[in-house]
Specification:
With 588 residues, the chain is mainly α. Among the domains are: 1-107 and 121-132, no CATH class; 339-382 and 402-539 and 552-586, Tetratricopeptide repeat domain (Serine Threonine Protein Phosphatase 5, Tetratricopeptide repeat). The chain is built from 27 helices and 2 strands. The protein has helices at residues 9-27, 36-48, 58-68, 72-91, 95-109, 122-129, 145-167, 170-181, 187-203, 207-220, 225-238, 241-257, 280-285, 291-304, 308-322, 341-354, 358-372, 384-387, 396-429, 433-447, 464-487, 491-504, 509-521, 525-537, 540-547, 558-563, 569-587, and strands at residues 380-382, 450-452. A two-stranded parallel sheet has the order 1-2. The chain is elongated and about 120 Å long.
């Protein structure tokens, strides 16, 4: 409450500097908001000099103080307070304000020293150009301005590097992050910087360089587990599955041992880099995966790589985690690696089938079927006009909501139909052809719920992925049921299913081969030979192109695709060639 007096202001500003640092250090949390103490301190400086700045914002206040206050004894404490102000603004990502403040500080010292060379980063040049004021022995500081300058420089380089990384300017981001890595910071921040360098170089298409940065991050601080997560991602990109799985296994074990709150920050400084850098992009880049996400990735990668026994073990571990309230532990903001839970169940069923555990696969699929039954409408209309509603029209919002509901209903339908599909193939493997036919028929009956309106089976962009999956499930179910009809000697019914399969996917090699076999078994050998010649003469590239159309199919359909492959190609081809040869001799 005392009036401001020039002789006491150096001490007052130094006490304010130390007090603010103690406040920051004691909270040990990211700096937020404005430093009201600094604003009040500047007003007292102006008051002591007979000036007024009550109506000015903080930036204008700094400009007025540094331009009008020329008392020599106040320059050092004002510069130290300016460095603290820069820390607050850096924490708020107000990089322009920081550059302007250091421009004023450097100009106040020497008008010729505030120049930034071409090609240099302006903010970093400004911080580097700032001359640290000398410390007086009579006014001790709890953290030197020299250390504070180094921390500001590192934080500014790190923040700008993150901004450029988010913007996709990778060479600039790389340069700034490398500058930050050579700065003044704790081990955990250095590990974070190396992790960001690894992410940047990976996006630049330099996986080996990315691995070097990520390994450096783990050498500096092994508790920087996001680096280990990126290591696995890079090895996945390189196709080195063994090392990728090792990295994921290490990550899973480490997540189980180290509490998320563990940190290796330096205790020696009150103001630290980690208190200044807390942007959303950094939070996203360094997000700690939940152990269940890593367990799922292990299961998924093993299944994709054909390591069926390991995949089954990981999927069953994951399903047991579901009993522990997994949905409440994993973020639902789209950043999680987990797909929808029914898809995980279906992938587990696929793994169990490939491992020969058909009865277990049937049980898992029954869970999916029972959970989705009440979520599917009796009739699901997919109308062309719904998806042509313009976004600017009054009904666009309503149409968007209806579209979202239809997309969700189509997903639920696909999951349940896939459950029946898997059960059909599982019963077929168990030698129960009648039960297999029943499950395949349930799958096909489910798909009859979808009514496509408009110009035929028009797949519009918004629902195209869902419709493609449903069509593939229908194709696989028809092929599956047809094979079981053949096993039961019901060759005419099998022929109809294979003909319908080719209507859905003309040129499909499995459906075409089974069609030929059905005709052959019906003793319609001339037709079978004609169809065989027709499909044999079609270009393999055309079939491959047709098979690869659309988006990648869900992983849970992979085993069904394999089981639908025609297994008797060579014997059937020899039989038909012998028949054609004999027919040619008879003709001659």
């Amino acid at each position: 409450g005392l009036p401001a007096a020039l002789p006491a202001l150096p001490l007052e500003l130094t006490v304010l500097y130390n007090c603010l640092l103690f406040t920051v250090g004691a909270s040990d949390s990211a700096i937020k908001g404005e430093a009201e103490g600094i604003h009040q301190g500047l007003l007292r400086v102006l008051e002591a000099c007979g000036a007024c700045g009550q109506d000015l914002g903080t930036e204008e206040l700094w400009e007025k103080v540094l331009q009008e206050v020329t008392v020599e004894e106040l320059q050092a404490p004002l510069h130290r307070l300016g460095a603290l102000q820069a820390a607050w603004w850096l924490a708020a990502s107000r990089l322009g304000s920081v550059a302007g403040l250091f421009q004023l500080l450097s100009t106040a010292e020497d008008p010729g020293r505030a120049h930034c060379s071409e090609g240099q980063n302006k903010l970093l040049s400004m911080i580097k150009a700032w001359q640290v004021p000398p410390e007086g022995a009579s006014l001790p500081l709890v953290q030197s301005a020299k250390d504070l300058k180094e921390i500001l420089y590192t934080a500014a380089a790190f923040l700008q590097g993150l901004q450029e990384l988010e913007a996709g300017n990778f060479p600039t981001a790389l340069s700034l992050l490398q500058e930050a890595a050579g700065g003044f910071c704790s081990k955990n921040i250095l590990a974070q910087i190396y992790t960001c360098l690894g992410c940047c170089t990976q996006r630049m298409g330099k996986p080996q360089t990315a691995l070097q940065h990520l390994k450096r991050a783990l050498q500096v601080d092994f508790q920087c587990l996001p680096a280990l997560s990126y290591v696995a991602a890079v090895y996945h990109e390189l196709g080195e599955t063994d090392v990728e799985l090792q990295a994921l296994t290490l990550l899973y074990e480490a997540l189980g041992k180290i509490p998320p709150a563990a940190a290796s920050s330096s205790p020696y400084f009150l103001m630290r880099t980690e208190l200044l850098v807390h942007t959303p992009v950094l939070t996203s880049l360094l997000r700690h995966r939940h152990p269940s996400e890593v367990k799922y990735l292990l299961a998924q990668r093993c299944l994709q790589d054909g390591r069926v026994a390991d995949a089954v073990e990981h999927y069953l571990d994951f399903l047991s985690l579901l009993q522990e309230g997994l949905q409440q532990q994993v973020p639902l903001d789209g950043s999680s690696a987990l797909p929808r839970i029914p898809e995980v169940f279906l992938e587990a069923a696929s793994a169990l089938e490939q491992a020969g555990r058909h009865q277990d696969a049937i049980t898992v699929c029954e869970e999916v079927i029972s959970r989705t039954t009440d979520l599917i409408p009796r009739v699901l209309r997919v109308e062309e006009r719904l998806e042509q509603t313009e976004s600017s029209s009054p009904g666009a919002e309503l149409a968007g909501g209806l579209l979202s509901q239809k997309k969700e209903s189509l997903c639920c339908l696909a999951w349940r139909a896939a459950g029946y599909l898997h059960q059909g193939w599982a019963w077929a493997k168990l030698g129960e052809s009648k039960e297999a036919v029943t499950q395949f028929s349930r799958c096909l009956n489910d798909l009859l719920r979808v009514q496509l309106h408009g110009s035929g089976i028009k797949q519009t962009e918004n629902l195209q992925a869902e419709v493609e999956v449903l069509q593939k499930i229908r194709l696989l179910s028809l092929i599956g049921r047809g094979t079981q009809f053949l096993e039961l000697g019901r060759n005419k019914e099998a022929l109809l299913d294979f003909q319908h399969s080719l209507q859905i996917s003309p040129g499909d090699p499995a459906a075409a081969s089974y069609l030929v076999q059905a005709l052959w078994k019906l003793n319609r050998k001339q037709e079978a030979a004609a169809q065989w010649q027709k499909f044999s003469q079609s270009s393999p590239g055309e079939d491959g192109q047709q098979q690869g159309q659309g988006r990648p199919l869900p992983l849970y359909l992979a085993s069904c695709l394999e089981q639908a492959v025609f297994p008797h190609s060579e014997p059937l081809a020899r039989s038909i060639q012998d028949y054609l040869g004999a027919a040619a001799q008879d003709t001659s």
